[in-house]
Amino acid sequence: MTESDPPLQVERPSDGVVVLRLNRPAQLNAMTVDLVDALHTELDALASDTRCRVVVLTGAGRGFCAGLDLGGFGVVPGTEDLGAVQTTLAVQTRIASLVQKIRRLPQVFVAAVNGAAAGGGLALVLACDVRIAAAPAVFAVSFIRVGFSGCDIGTSWLLPRIVGAGRAHELMLTGRRFDADEALRIGMLADVVAPEELSARVDAAVADLLAAPPMSLALTKRGMWLALETTSLDTAIEMENRQQVLTASTADQVEAMAAFVEKRPPAYRNR
Predict the structure, then answer these.
(1) Which end of the chain is more exposed for a tag (fewer CB within 10 A), N or C?
(2) Cα 112–Cα 2–Cα 95 angle in degrees, nearest 5
């Protein structure tokens, strides 16, 4: 990679799929202002991209994302004349809002974890809806190991809900590294495969996701995360009832049923 290479590669390997590849391999794809801004730009574009249904988030080289670049993040545009506290808050907000955008977008995000994911890199993994890793991948909350709080970039909310509070609290308090096998065992990952099999395994997951009607897929993502925030079973069921009525009223639901009965691939039109 040269200095002219973009910090984020955007690929469109097939209809309905976008790949966002963090592209600072020499730095294990550590976050700088340029990389974070590039991610924001692409996430903003996805908000109005009705053709894209699945996004794969991965890293170039041997790392997924090592978190904040300790060699220097850079300056968030517009904060040049602010005080130290204000500029630090701007950096914090700029990075953390990536997780919020991923959660709010209708597309399903698949984390293809090709290597180390630490700190903010782990937060990006947790923000994704489906998480698949290569066997050599390692993870760490990390923040507490460099003098910050172990609660950062949404990790204190996401990790306990994905793996359970007891294990999440231990990982946040210690900042210890844990490998892909442990991440699979505690429920953080959906699957772990050999490095040479990661691409094919992710492709298979994407194909499974694209088998669902577009609206059904988007509403399921929204509903499953909202269910983690609801206060009661009754509230969740009321939301589910409305999602079912909405999807039952679409032409794609009729097509999905017909394709299932006729044992053929569906042809969705997002109608």
Answers:
(1) C
(2) 50
